[in-house]
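ESCALATION

Customer reports they have been waiting on this structure for their group meeting. Please prioritize. Original submission:
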Amino acid sequence: MDFKIFRKIIKLKIVLLVLLLPLIFSGCSYFNIFNKSEVAKASPEVLYSRASAEYKDGHYKKAQESFLRLKEEYPLHELAILAEVGIADSLYSDKEYAEAQNAYNDFVSLHPTNKNVPYALYQLGMCHYNEIGDIDRDQTETIKAKKEWEKLVARYPESKFSSMAEKLIRECKQKLAEQEFYVGRYYLRKKKYQAALSRFEKVARDYANVGLDYKIEYYINETKIKIAEEEKLKLKKESEKEKTKKIVMTNKSSRSSFYWSEDSDTD
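Update from on-call: job pushed to the front of the queue and completed.
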């Protein structure tokens, strides 16, 4: 090939490349802008629908992200309030109960008149309920769950969530009664009768009609008998001790009189 022709071809390619470069870069920018605009174009309804679908499919973290995006991009939209509930639900379903509690609490505090408050209060109780341990463990979570549901029933007695909560309140009371009964029996086995009686009487006083009434009545009576027997034995021991003390004192007095009498005879 002629060298001059080759040089012309090279120059032509360079010119074409120089001319195409702005188009290439502007094209990339165009596609970037297009993609960004597509993301920005997502409406509150689209975001909420997407988040709900992700939640339904069990993708709780993705659902949380979508709900959060809706809340941040459209804070004044009515769906933003529902997104707050969605965030709390996503955390709850992902078993992040402490974080879910905070989210439900924030919702109740920020929107006290919203129609979803009864649901949020119910879910607050459920966060604690799912952390309840066996009866031989601390029952703080049971007490907290019961407290949230009692608050719900007191504020919204007509709500369907109050009806559901009432059944769970009874279950919590039964759990607390069983724990008190368990501790009472432990003290009874250890012959700490007063401590046992205190526990049994607490069940009778605070947790009536939860299924332990007959048991508690029996154990209260049996414990009182044990206390009476213990008191009787204690009095008997004290009486015997007092008798022994008197005998010792009498013997000492007799010996003193004997020595005094001998000294008198010697004189």
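Sent to customer with the following note: The CA atoms of residues 29 and 67 lie 29 Å apart.
Escalation resolved.
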